[in-house]
Amino acid sequence: MKKKILSITLLGIMVLGVSVAVNAKSRNKYNRNVSSNNYIGVNKAMNIALKKVPGASNSHVKKINLDRENGRMVYEGEIYYNGQEYEFDIDAVTGDIVKWKVDEISNNPGYINNNVNNSQTITMEKAKSIALAQVPGANQSHFGKIELDHDYGRAVYEIEIFYNNSKYEFDIDASTGEIIGTQVKHYNKNY
């Protein structure tokens, strides 16, 4: 009798172990266990999104950043163009558009011309190259958030770079190209 109870208990434990393993695998179906070097990069993600908005250019991209959504790494961003707000998520490995949302914003005065400051003199590409120059060894695939924001009455690019177990954050004045703020956080895991 004891052998029968022991056998049933062991069988139950094995079934439970298999179901937990299968569940863990299914929850991570998009986690391809790839390094950031296999990501398509911010530039390609931005170009994929811009192709869906005829007439829009890099200056209309309000933000784009690397994020984890539903178990997969995506580039999420916003484009403001012609009275519309376009929100998107693009798979960081395949380049597939996994989310696309369009909202009318022309009646919201808070968004009118909020994406580009008339005094802006440097492009997002120039701001990215300024930030990359501060992190030797990093490349385009290491960018996280890239956003044009308005802080303290001026246009500022907020840029994140994930490289060598560290997160580098830069605030770059969009008029002058001057780095006006930096922060570095060191982590124990790879990005």
UniProtKB/TrEMBL annotation:
Q: Which residues form the signal peptide?
A: 1-24
Q: Which domain of life is it from?
A: Bacteria
Q: Which UniProt keywords apply?
A: Signal
- In what residue span(s) does the PepSY domain sit? 41-99, 122-182
- Bilayer-crossing residues are none
Query: Which InterPro entries does the protein's record reference?
Result: PepSY (IPR025711)
Q: What is this protein called?
A: Propeptide PepSY amd peptidase M4
Species: Leptotrichia hongkongensis
